[in-house]
């Protein structure tokens, strides 16, 4: 009997004893299943995420915002996490920041938003739009990484500090790293400002525009 099986049996014995049992009849212990694997199809992955209870954000969300777009997209955008509008509609980037992102895609990249793929570091809205905690991001990242694997984009655009840091583990701020083209998984990663930041800081739009031109040149 393995150590794990012995521990499980001991645990069960304690439970039986706490119920008042004084002896225990040995029963077969089912062989350990291999650890749960994450589905390889986007539909299955989405179905799993819709019932996800892995972190506290599930308690306050209205909808899981899984992500959307073309499964063969060449470019993928990764934001931070859903805001109030996204939480209501279950879709990423549908508020003011989303409108700006859509304009950046359609007017600068010259492609339709629906031909890209858009997702977030976390799929459920952090209350008060706070930054997702490392625990929340780490619980959610396997979904995002599988989405990246399935879409296999040529280019990943990290929108803002949170996205860049949780994707790469690099603690440098977005103002430091934007302008770089980074090898990331099988893609090129372009860090740029988050559209919400651009709405508050008009002057940064020029640099974001240059970043989008960089994306266009790579396409
Ligand atoms: N901000 C994000 O980071 N993601 C969204 O989906 C919307 C706003």
Shape-level CATH architecture = 3-Layer(aba) Sandwich
Tally of helical runs: 10
**Count of distinct strands:** 6
SSE sequence, one letter per element: HHHEEHHEHEHHEEHH
Contiguous uncertain segments of 5+ residues: none
Radius of gyration of CA atoms, rounded to a whole number: 22 Å
CATH homology superfamily name = Uracil-DNA glycosylase-like domain
What's the overall average pLDDT, rounded?
92
Walk me through the topology.
Blueprint: H1 3-18, H2 42-50, H3 57-60, E1 68-69, E2 75-79, H4 84-89, H5 96-109, E3 117-120, H6 134-151, E4 155-159, H7 160-168, H8 174-177, E5 182-184, E6 187-192, H9 195-200, H10 205-218
Helix pairs in contact: 2-6, 5-10
The chain binds uracil.
Uracil (URA) binds at residues 79-83, 86, 92-93, 97-98, 120, 196.
Quick structural gist:
The protein is of the alpha/beta class. The protein has 10 helices and 6 strands. It has one domain: Uracil-DNA glycosylase-like domain (Uracil-DNA Glycosylase, subunit E, 3-Layer(aba) Sandwich), CATH 3.40.470.10.
Description:
- The chain is an alpha/beta fold.
- 46% of the residues lie in helices and 11% in strands.
- The protein has a six-stranded mixed beta sheet with strand order 1-3-2-4-6-5, sandwiched between helices.
- Helix 2 (42-50) packs antiparallel against helix 6.
- The longest helix is centred in the middle third of the chain and has 18 residues, at 134-151.
- It starts with a helix and ends with a helix.
- The model has no long low-confidence stretch (mean pLDDT 92).
- The chain binds uracil.
- The site of uracil (URA) has 12 residues, from helix 5.
């Amino acid at each position: 009997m393995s150590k794990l099986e012995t521990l499980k049996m001991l645990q069960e014995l304690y439970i039986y004893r706490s119920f008042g049992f004084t002896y225990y009849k040995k029963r077969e212990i089912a062989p350990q299943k291999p650890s749960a694997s994450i589905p390889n199809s986007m539909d299955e992955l989405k179905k799993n995420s819709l019932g996800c209870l892995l972190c506290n954000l599930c308690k306050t969300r209205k909808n899981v915002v899984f992500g959307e777009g073309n499964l063969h997209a060449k470019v993928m955008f990764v934001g931070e996490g859903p805001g109030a509008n996204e939480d209501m509609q279950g879709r990423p980037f549908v508020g003011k920041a989303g409108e700006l992102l859509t304009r950046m895609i359609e007017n600068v990249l010259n492609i339709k938003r629906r031909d890209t793929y858009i997702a977030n570091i976390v799929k459920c809205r952090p209350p008060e739009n706070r930054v997702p905690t490392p625990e929340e991001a780490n619980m959610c990242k396997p979904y995002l990484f599988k989405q990246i694997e399935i879409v296999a984009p040529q280019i990943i655009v990290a929108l803002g500090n949170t996205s860049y840091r949780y994707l790469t583990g690099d603690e440098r701020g977005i103002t430091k790293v934007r302008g770089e083209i980074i090898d990331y998984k099988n893609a090129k990663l372009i860090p740029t400002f988050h559209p919400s930041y651009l709405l508050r800081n008009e002057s940064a739009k020029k640099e974001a525009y240059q970043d989008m031109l960089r994306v266009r040149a790579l396409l």
